[in-house]
Design the sequence.
């Protein structure tokens, strides 16, 4: 996660996070209470890539627009 374990972002994923905790877990390098910030997402992505067997990179426009 790109936030603390107690900060689900976006909040609409709160139910999914609870289901993941019940069946396995969540992983973050951030301290509890850490709000998601742009510089934390590359660190999160590094962890995901390191734990994955395969990584597919999808690119977006410069402003993230389709």
Sequence:
């Amino acid at each position: 996660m790109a936030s603390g374990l107690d900060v689900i972002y976006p909040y609409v994923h709160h139910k999914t996070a609870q289901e993941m905790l019940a069946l396995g877990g969540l992983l973050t390098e951030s301290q509890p209470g850490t709000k998601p910030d742009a510089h934390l997402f590359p660190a999160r992505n590094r962890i995901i890539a390191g734990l994955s067997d395969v990584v597919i990179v999808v690119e977006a426009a410069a402003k993230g627009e389709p």
